[in-house]
Write a structure and sequence with these properties.
Blueprint (H helix, E strand, L loop, with lengths): L6 H13 L8 H9 L1 H22 L8 H18 L4
Helix pairs in contact: 1-3
């Protein structure tokens, strides 16, 4: 008899589940693990929240309303950050 999947395996399964377009039935071992492990249940809720958030943002994109000087300042800082963290060579 197979044991319950580890939390690492459950995390991978839940992540893969988010990518599937058609829902697939969950295995008994996955359902049992989720019943017993509050950490994996929390991770599942977080994945669901992220997926729903991305769907909402994609459906209703918001144009940035920052002033030009603010956008320029952010761009300058990001460039400085990239220069600092890029590998030498």
């Amino acid at each position: 008899m197979m044991g319950l999947p580890s939390c690492r395996e459950v995390a991978a399964l839940l992540s893969r589940e988010q990518d599937d377009t058609a829902p697939t039935p969950r295995s008994l071992s996955l359902r049992l693990h989720l019943l017993m492990c509050r950490h994996c249940r929390r991770y599942e809720r977080q994945l669901t929240w992220l997926r729903r958030s991305f769907i909402r943002v994609r459906a209703n994109p918001v144009a940035p309303k920052l002033p030009a000087h603010t956008r320029a300042r952010i761009r300058k800082r990001l460039r400085r950050h990239d220069d600092f963290h890029s590998p030498p060579g």
